[in-house]
Each structure stands twice: as C-alpha cells, then as structure tokens.
C-alpha cells in the first residue's frame, strides 16, 4: 500500500470547514508531511491570524486524515512563526515593525560571521525554569535532526548544570588543535560542553563575568566546522547568559520547553517575552511530561495536567510543536548515554521527538 499523496492530503483538508464555510487550506499551506508507522504527521504553514482560525479545526482535520488508506493516526501542527520586532525594543517599550523569519539567511549580527562562520542556522532550546526537560529535548532534537540527514552540532550552554556529557555518553575531553577545541562526535552529531572540561562532581561556582567568558570560549574557541544547524541548549531562566548568547550569535529561532502546569507556564511565558525583546523569533512551544502511561496496564494519567502548553502557545500566538510523554525510558536513556531517539526509537517518546525533529528539519530546509 502506497503512502497518501500530497494531493490526497490536500483534498481531505479542504473538506474541513469552519462556521464561515472556509477550509483549513484557505488560511494555511501544506508545508510538510511524513508517514511513519501508520502515523501521518502534517505541518501547515500559516500566519498568526490564520493560526487562530485553524486551531479549533485541528481535531476535525486529524479525524479526517485518519480515513486515508494506510493511516492509523494523524497529527496536525502549525509551523507559523510569530514575527519578531524589526529592532529590539528597550525593556518596557512597545514593539515596532515586524519581519518574517529567515532561517539560514544572512546573519542578523556580524558576530555570527566571526564566531560560527560555517554554521548556517542556530536554534536555541530554552525554558523559563529548570527541571522541565529542556536538555533532554535539546539532545533528542539534535540527534533527531541528524537522523533527518542534516549536519548538526549541539552546544551545551548550561554552564552551571552541564548534562550533555552524561546524556550523550561522552567522557573524554576534546582534542585541542592550534588553540581550538574539536567537538566530540556522538550519535551522528558534533557536541561540546563545559562539562567535558571539568570533573562532573565539581560545582561551577562562577560569577557572571566567568560564565560569559566560558560561553565566549565555547563559541569562539571551538572548531564547529560546516553545519546545517547548531542546537544550543540554553541555561534555564532569563538572565545574563541568555543575553550574552543572543548578542554573540544570530539566533534564527528559539524553542521553549514547558510542563503543563500553570506555575511552569508562567516562566515559559517570560521566556517567550525575553526572546521577543531580543529580536529572536519563537519557533514554538513543546509540552514535556505531557502525560504518563503506566508501563504495565497502559493507563494514561495527566500527572501535571494536560494541554497547558498548547493553550499557552495559542494565547501567545506561537506554534505548538508537540507533546512529549513522561516515561521511565526517557530517564533511563539519558542516564545510559543513548538518547531515546536512538535507544528506543519506536517508543511514544522516541516517536514524539522524531516528529519534532522532522518538523524543524522541514522548516530549516524550506528556509535555506
């Protein structure tokens, strides 16, 4: 049985109409489709106004797509990008004009040309607070992008809590050649972390200037080579480190990770606002620990609530990029040094991360 064609998918989407009689494709364009293990992933490109019209129709669209031959499940996401201000406003100032997202285009700051001359696109994975699974998302996204055929680097910029070495199974320090460090290769990507240079039991009791200096070295003194995308695992919060990274490199976009409960979403909202003030487009939100499935009986429990990030994304006018379940396999894979997209690719979490990587890879290819 052949996969559904683009024309068949578009025909099905045109059958989904709102109360005014307009279809989904009147407000969006079919961006990318992927059929994996019976699950059809569909990405629709739209603007902020279109996203508001389409969001209520997504469940109906997914039901319609499930009727296609060979499709047992369907997931529709919006790849609209909220336009960023043309000039970074001062704190508290109103935003000015807008510009479209241009992944991989001319750097917005000259600093990228000096620090990362061979890197086409830089994407930040961030969170408003710690403990929401930001680093796990960054690692699996980066490896997933590599599995999509892109040349990928992963920078662990969380200086106070570097977890990349353990999660990627890296233990040896990087090789230094002519004063520049060479990133380590693991799971098909290149990776670098301050954790590779210090004992993992050592507390990083550093003041701001030391942190800024370390980040500058991870960017300027590392030979990243030629990459399609560099994924930056940002420190949690909205402080000096985030500002320094935004000033030193031209971030093409940011992904904000949150758990569903209100207290986490408050911080995620601050993170989105921070990127807007720094003139960094927000690619979307990811809801981590979205639900728990019992490994014995399969019963689903919403430990932290459910759908909070999707609702917050809609309220903030940014895309919702997907749900990641809370599974013991994710913890086990991180501790073992094999990302779950490698260790358990067919698990619900492995499939969720691969879907996220597929969406971001399609966006990168479309914009470069």
UniProtKB/TrEMBL annotation:
InterPro entries cross-referenced by the UniProt entry: FSCA_dom_sf, MIP18-like, Mrp-like_CS, Mrp/NBP35_ATP-bd, NUBPL-like, P-loop_NTPase, YlxH/NBP35
Subunit structure: Homodimer.
PROSITE patterns: MRP
Residues covered by region (Disordered): 86-108
The entry's keywords: ATP-binding, Hydrolase, Iron, Iron-sulfur, Metal-binding, Nucleotide-binding
Protein's name according to its UniProt entry: Iron-sulfur cluster carrier protein
Molecular-function annotations in GO: 4 iron, 4 sulfur cluster binding; ATP binding; ATP hydrolysis activity; ATP-dependent FeS chaperone activity; metal ion binding
Residues that bind ATP: 128-135
Free-text function comment from the UniProt entry: Binds and transfers iron-sulfur (Fe-S) clusters to target apoproteins. Can hydrolyze ATP.
Family: In the C-terminal section; belongs to the Mrp/NBP35 ATP-binding proteins family. Belongs to the Mrp/NBP35 ATP-binding proteins family.
Any GO BP: iron-sulfur cluster assembly
MIP18 family-like domain span: 6-76
